[in-house]
Design goal:
Length: 340
């Protein structure tokens, strides 16, 4: 029987692992690549539509979004997901990019949901300030963002973090920093036997779903293909792409959360299935993580937003049609008076 897939030993979080004095990490570079790709796709749409905005307008809008994203992602990641409470007691550490001993760590611990909220707030403020058509611009960034997001999840994989639940799938992977389990447990011995893992110690590192790659593929590439090639050309009204992205991401992420291990200190927030179910194994679809609850809010919010925008756009069309009819009646009356 083949042993489980081992996390590639040649992958290091640092770009220059042999020069620790240069703290350049792939995770940060992946974020920059993701921002750059999203920016280019966004700029392409602005130019393609000949909207007449300058490069400064585009750069400013995008920069406002990035700043909002980083602030929101960091606030959610530290204040909502960190159970120690240290960031509530010492809030100045939220944006302090150095760890113990003064080592540069960057902003490790970023929440997508927080980043999304921050992005919306950032671009909304910028749009109000410059009197831009917020929904028009938001639609363009919504169909571009998933492809850039792909690289953020690849950065998580390179960091060998945010791994999935224990699995016997042929592609399941052993992550070096993942939690070890007592080899005395029955389910541990069963998984080890199925995956060819040797039980030669008191603790064993079992293979897990590479959920970071699942997210990169489905929340990133798949969702981008749907939005870019199906939603973007047929966008029926302003705001539709935004709602489609929010709901689409929520649906895809909700499903993937079943394969991703919840935060150990949070566990399952709602336990409608087995209340004693382990967070390390999939056992029931009725236990829900914090990520799934936030995704559920995204699904409801995205679909609700589409419904509201559809009704408003339909009403606008009706008002425009009524106004056109009224103008036609006035012109007809003028012509009749002229011929008298």
């Amino acid at each position: 029987m083949l042993a489980a897939v081992q996390f590639p030993s040649w992958i290091h979080p640092e770009i220059l692992p042999f020069f620790p004095q240069f703290p350049l990490r792939w995770y940060g570079l992946m974020y920059l690549v993701g921002f750059a790709i999203t920016y280019l796709l966004f700029k392409y749409q602005v130019k393609k539509r000949t909207l007449g905005y300058s490069d400064d307008d585009i750069s400013g809008f995008f920069l406002a979004g990035i700043i909002g994203l980083i602030i929101g992602a960091r606030l959610f990641g530290t204040l909502l997901y960190d159970p120690s409470g240290i960031y509530w007691r010492k809030p100045w550490l939220i944006f302090w990019p150095f760890g113990e001993g003064g080592t540069f760590t960057g902003f490790m611990g970023m929440s997508f949901h927080g980043g999304f909220v921050g992005l919306v707030v950032g671009v909304l403020i910028y749009s109000k300030r410059l009197r831009l058509d917020f929904l028009q611009w938001a639609d363009m960034i919504a169909v571009a963002a998933p492809l850039g997001y792909t690289f953020g999840r690849l950065g998580n994989f390179i960091n060998a973090e945010l791994w999935g639940k224990v699995s016997t799938a042929p592609w399941a992977m052993v992550f070096p920093a993942a939690r070890r389990f007592p080899s005395s447990l029955g389910w541990v011995r069963e998984v080890a036997q199925k995956t060819g893992i040797a039980l030669d110690g008191a603790l064993v590192n079992l293979p897990r779903h590479p959920s970071q790659l699942y997210e990169a593929l489905f929340e990133g590439i798949f969702l981008w293909l749907v939005l870019w090639f199906m939603v973007r050309p047929r966008n029926p009204f302003k705001g539709f792409a935004v709602g489609a992205y929010v709901a689409g991401y929520g649906i895809v992420r909700f499903v993937i959360e079943y394969f991703r291990e919840p935060d150990a200190d949070l566990g399952y927030i709602i336990k409608l299935g087995d209340p004693d179910a382990s967070i390390h194994l999939y056992s029931t679809p009725l236990n829900f993580s914090m990520g799934q609850l936030l995704c559920l809010l995204m699904i409801i919010g995205g679909l609700g937003f589409i419904a509201v925008r559809w009704r408003l756009s339909k009403r606008s069309v009706s008002l425009l049609a009524a106004a056109a009819t009224e103008r036609a009646k006035i012109e007809h009356a003028k012509k009749k008076l002229k011929h008298r």
